């Protein structure tokens, strides 16, 4: 009796099977890479949200503030003190940032802020101002081994949803110290129209601590 004929795979069958397996393996790797990319994107977004929410995470803190503060190059112009910032718009809406270094320092771990010649950058989230900042108060707590500080200027930009980008620069050129003129631990700059600030009173030469304005910690 004759053996039944053997069924042989068509020519090139083994090569096509190997190619199919290779393609399947490649597709699996591509899918895995896409999943990893998606997860890393989610983690990056979460980290960004955590960075901004450091201000307080309140629902009304929808605007992002970026501050650039230049310390003068004069001898002993740097300071170890804690610096607070208050800003206001022409409509009298104001916010205060207590200890701006802890609030939003961006210069990295181990960096020494407010040293002579530094341009320090800070950013974080807070309640929105409805008009560009036109009033500023810088306050030093006078702490640290060297409390005196000479500030050249402060520049602030703010932006938020459904609003434009505001930018304001305040020239300081003043010591914040108790042992040199003007013998004050704060500096106030008022570029707002006086009439529009009537509801708040005279903001010139007033310490931010006396304003009773909302604080960001």
TrEMBL record:
Signal peptide interval: none
Protein name, entry field: PLAT domain-containing protein
Organism: Vanilla planifolia (Vanilla)
InterPro entries: PLAT/LH2_dom (IPR001024), PLAT/LH2_dom_sf (IPR036392)
Cited SUPFAM superfamilies: Lipase/lipooxygenase domain (PLAT/LH2 domain)
Domain PLAT: 63-190
